[in-house]
Amino acid sequence: MARYGGNTTCIEIRTGDRDLIILDGGSGIYPLAQALMSEVPLVAHIFISHTHWDHIHGLPFFNPLFIPGNEVNIYGGYDVVAQKGIEHALSTQFQYSYFPIREAELKARIRYFTIGAGETVRVGNAKVTPTLMNHPVLNYGYRVECSGKSVFFTGDHEPHWNIYEPDDDEFQEYESLIHQQERSILDGMRDVDLLIADSSYTPEEYEAKKGWGHGTFDSSVRMARLAGVRELFFTHYEPTRTDRALEAVFADVIARYPRECREIGFNLAMEGRVIEL
Ligand SMILES: [Zn+2]
Ligand SMILES: [Zn+2]
Questions:
Q1: Low-confidence residues of the chain: pLDDT under 50
Q2: Crossing angle of helices 217-227/171-188, nearest 10°?
Q3: Structural domains of the chain, ranges and CATH numbers in brackets
Q4: Which of 53, 108, 160, 234 is at 20 to 30 A from 219, Cα to Cα?
């Protein structure tokens, strides 16, 4: 993955006023931190989709945390398993077993905001709204809107599927719950200019990974079409895929969905790629 990048999820968004919004703190936040050093003191707003390692393990290497005068705001959902707010994402990693520096030694002003689904956060002129997605742990997709432009990032997301058989008593009730949740997700990303979607697998690979909490290229195309998205970026690639294999998978997707590709526009997300809206 030399061309598309081997780092885990981190997306930087700049508003027209240069306000800094960061989606997820995967290992990609480390090269971002290097680039940000010329801007300190700075204010950063980091929104965490969920606390699986690949989305937070870059946080302890976010250099602005160690520099006085910086302000780092971290947002995310309540962890029902640990029964803790989003402060948990950082404090767990700053235990001595995992990292040599204690959280108390961080010099930036750090604030945590545990937010609920649908609760809009204002960052300057931008609005960031979390939507509950489908993953083994609570995972927020984020819609970021500013000056009439919008982006939705899914975090990790698997399309809902009914865990019951059609003749089970629970089937119908579960089916309507699924429809309700799917509607809420589509509403969350409705008409965005850019959708960045978990497209870990091909449909063939997915059969063995059902329930792992990840989507396929095809499920991303479907969501983009139903939500009226303008442009789609596939991301969160299956980690063993080489650049060449990824491009072959992408060519197959274009061949399967020629109309959607023309109407929506398909892209492979790539490390360092800059998109202006
Ligand atoms: Zn995950
Ligand atoms: Zn992930």
A1: none
A2: 70
A3: 11-268 (3.60.15.10)
A4: 53
